[in-house]
User: What shape does this take?
Amino acid sequence: MSEQNVHPGMNLGYDGGEEEAEVKIFGFWAFVMSDLVTFGLVFAIFGTMAGSTAGGPGPEEVTDLTSVAIQTVLLLGSSFGFSWASLSMKYHPKSRWRTLGWLAVAATSALGFLVLEVVDFHHWTTIGAVPQRSGYLSALWALVGLHGLHVAGGLIWMAAMTGQILVFGLTDDIKSRVTRMGLYWHFLDVVWVGIFSMVFLAGVA
Amino acid sequence: MNALFGRLSWSELKLFETFTHGWSIDTLVAAGAAWAVVLGAVAVAGWLTWAGLWGRFWRDWLTSVDHKKIGIMYIVLGFVMMARGVAEGLVMRSHQATALGGGVLSEEHWAELFSTHGTIMIFFVAMPFITGFMNYLIPLQIGARDMAFPMLNQISLGLTATGAALTMISLVVGVFETGGWTAYPPFTGAAFDPGPGPDYWVWAIVLSGFGSMFSGINFAVTIYKMRAPGMTYMRMPVFTWTALCTSILLTFALPPLTVAGLMQALDRYLEFNFFTNDQGGNMMNYANLFWMFGHPEVYILVLPAYGIFSELTSTFAAKKLYGYESLVLATMSIAVISFAVWLHHFFTMGNSATVNVAFGIATMVIAVPTGVKVYVWMATLWGGRIRFTTPMYYMTGFFILFVVGGLSGIILANPAINWQVHNTQFIVAHFHNVLLPGLIFGIFAGIHIWFPKAFGFRLDERAGKITALLWIVGFCLTFLPLYVVGLMGYPRRSSAFDDPAFLPYMIVCLIGACMLAAAFTGLFVTLWISIRKRDELAVPMGDPWDGRTLEWATPAPPPHWNFAVIPHISERDAFAREKAEGRPYVLPERYVDIHLPPNTPAGMIVFVTTTAFGFAATWWIWWLAILAILVLVGWMIVHSFLDHPEVVIPAVEVRRATNVWIEAIELAGEGVTRDDEVSPKNRGYASTDMLVAS
Amino acid sequence: MSARVCAAVAALALTAPLPLFAQEDTRGFLRPLGPIAELQRTELIWATILILLAILPVLLGVPYILWRYRRGNTKAKYRPQWEFNTKLEILMWGGPTLIVVALSIWLAQAVFRIDPYRTIEPEMAENMEFEMEGEPVTVDVIGLDWKWLFIYPEEGVASVGEMVLPVGRPVTLRLTTDTVMQSFMASGLSGQIYAMAGMVTQQNLIATRPGATLGTNTQYNGVGFAKQRAPVRAVDGDAYEAWLDEARDSDLALDDETYAILAQSGGLDRARSDLGVAGEGPVRFTLPAQSLFERVVARYMNGDAVAPEAQPGSPFYDPEAHVLPPAAEMTMEHDR
Assistant: This one.
């Protein structure tokens, strides 16, 4: 396996690091697939409960398209920033600051997303759109909240990664970790696109 | 409620129930069980202290990432929990034998018993057993040194132990859930059961479920990526194939259970409305989620047992497995179709006729590959030279009884009949009929086969055979009568009955249950006898059964590093071929240093923190729950900053160990023939029957 | 084991299922009172026979193979390399497939024929060869902890602990619960169907001969679960009318307050003492308003939270808190 560079995206050293990275990244793909099933199921539950508003606030009341649009831009921007971090890691492995800089952009952007999401949550509580109100709202909070928790977890991970890059530099191990983190980060984007279109756009369409 | 102990109070302690609730058989059973847990734990801890074994226990077992040791620990955990499950079964059968118009237990206790029995037997007996076998065998069978993610493997064990620990704690503190192992809301919702029972259930299931999912990912990646050179997919042993299918199922079938459990938790803790009666809640979603997990789960459990039966037939018939390709195809088909049949667990929910028909037919379709498997095993025996060792006893019991389970399964697949027998004792008979002969017999047969590999000596055959017969006869007496009373309309989970016609059957069931309890004891008697005779039974050369797959080409027990050099595989059952051609055990030409992952306390840290979290969340001890999460996350971050140097086994050491083993084989001269397989002459160097023929 | 012991064991094993065929009505669908349970029994018997075709080779073949190919038998040919045979493969895959195809066709026919939601019509009577006459009967079934409430909305009566049906008239049961999920089965007449709060499920059935069976809850719902069994009697037209008349003469009216008390957890005896009715056995009521069933369903569906105090079956239940919505505000869903 080590004859060719299996992960050109990482530009790893040539001392067998690819093989280990290959196994780990494949394993992470499997985890992402499993997580995708989880999101898929919560989506499905949301679908069955879309009509169960029990007389409470419905999609029209909870959807603030402006806010959701900004959130989408921020999260996609974060993913974009992460892509630049990956590219910097590949082409400028000597300068860890470039990678760190892009990671900071990604983190800030995602933090902005989370803040706006929390503002939305708060807004929902003020109009009585709390999860205790109806099956629809339970599913809404669970789905959006599950994604939000994933993003928050990702931010903690990113913070830890920053620390590790500072301590260890861009070693093969760290590159493999950053690559897996990237997989996770882009995956959350895909899920958000689903939430944006199926929960919010479809809700008010 | 107070900040320090949440809603926990002294009155929740079950140890003194006989004094606080008055003497009765019921309180005696409850308090006795609580004391059994406490004294059992104290006895184990005391013994470890007395023998001064804590250090070794910690270094060699708890912190080990060796897949073989983790596998053994899974199986030990399974047996500990099975002791409780069997005891519960016996208590329940005693109750039912007196249940004409009543019964010796209280209604609440009865409900708790059938719920814990089901939960424990599925999640903390069957699951650890199959995970243990997969752990032990996968790397050995594919020629790898360990799992793809050894630390994650240990963490999975920690999470499984967490679930088991929470159910054990519930025996001492508070009560467990009472709505059956499926825990259907709204009965288990906050409005009808404020707790702590369903909370124990949720955390036991969700936390151990994460462990199972990680196991699935780990095993699948190991099989995909860690196979020895030349070990193509179609050269893999059948057990590895079944393990691969099970791993894929674990990866994708556990999320529905996690989602169902966590939504149930949101309903209970934060008053969400997923499964409530009012405000748009819908319990039908729970039933769908639970069985989207629950049905694949059946195959998660039974497929590795099929793998064991496949290895067993070809080994003890001294013959190639008939129809390898058919078996692989059948296994894969079962795995795929198992995701498309979950609705047959609730044909009675008022689905449209079309939906019921579609799922009924899909369910029947699974019978085809399952039937093929049974025929394949028969064809494997055909033209063989069958040796009636203990595993073959289990195999025979399996053959005869499993097809009866298949019969009732196909009957149940027909919604028109299912409407009549759903939720009756017929169902109880059916799933015990497939899980006991199908899974547990396979596990016990497997233990007889691979115990010598793991510990270096065989299990006593005579005791093993008596035990096997007890299991088979005990099973028949305990569960076959339930088909009859089920058809007569006796609902499951029913603590009492009014029809005197049921009584004789229940008495037979009790006799059977006593036999099963004796059979369970028989396993330990077998172990005890075997330990005492271990010198006589020793098979240090590692191949007591004339095995066919790679793991038999190692000493017993195998070294930590499994293989001195990673073997190159040129065909299926390569070891059997080498033996038939008279050229097994070739010394490697050169040795290299072997790198192995270091010990880690990860599994223990995960176990302690998640158990603390589960207990705290159950009893609303919020500070402890938060602390547990912080410690866990904090440790993960700290861990990622630490350097973890690998353990290096120098080539010289590997050479020395290998030479000792090969020299012993050369000294033995001739291998032992199958005539002397169960005699003290068998030291694990096999002369194969296949040689004679070719 | 001596031959005599073996014979005794075999005799016992063979006679064990005999009570299934005993002439007692409460033995469920093996003693059907109507065409649906009868079809289910037929399905059971034929499915068993057909599947036996697939498993008999195993039951007979395994002992034979084990005996013939035992290691000690040197006469049997040992073929360690034999691993494939095309004809055998075709048989292995083809045999079960054919049986499954046959069973599937059968299954589909039966399910469409006796789908619980399908009302019993003259056409069905013709196909399945049974007699029916007279007006359809509707019975609304409410599952309570731990008793069944049967409401006859068209007749203005209700009964707890017993359901009486006229022979020969098609019956539509509409089911719900006012507590946790339950499952209603009158085994001699038809299979079971779940009853869930806020939802209506249906079971159509017909009795073609007089007799009794048990109306059982099969879904565990708490400590009184085992007692939740009500006789279901199929009687001829005159006896049915007489039974209804007696009910109409009852002193008890099933108004909202009575219902709230009736709904609290407890078996039939507890209900009697709560309502202040002496004696034992089933209780019959007159029905002041027709829409009790609909209102019980609607109380979970009108959007308001139903507090645990207002949910029968909850440990917090208080009959005072039980409020049924007015009939005018109902939003019922009758779909599956």
Summary: The CA atoms of residues 120 and 126 of chain A lie 10 Å apart.
